[in-house]
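Appendix B. Raw example, untouched.
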Amino acid sequence: MKQRITIEDLNTLTDEQKVHIQKWWKPKQGDYALSAENNNQSNGKTVVLSTVAKHPREFYGEKGVFVAFFVYENKDNGHMGNLDKLYPLLSIGQMIEFLRNQTEFSLDTHKDKFGVSFKQDDGKYISWDKVELCDALFAAVKQVI
């Protein structure tokens, strides 16, 4: 079972949608994300956060502006970078949390697929049926943002 969206899934979002999710996201240890260093989202790499550090004395940037940094794991060693260059690869749980914060929705399970539906502002319901729960949830997330 697919546990989180992929970089390809993330790249189906507009830049505005990516920023919306990025602002909602509260990075935690163990989260997966796309590292878009050098503003390159299409050639970024998947990282796993090992630490999210916010120590003002250690991490003040130029002109005294506080900059939040992340540290992530990789095979060889850690790396430090700016949180503004990270885009979350949302997990099933994170997408459920996001949807719960945005709208009323329901999940349905069927023999060979999952369904997600929610009520739009106009009172009509919209729904998706997908083989993967992750894909059904992401379809709903894309519609909500």
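End of appendix B.
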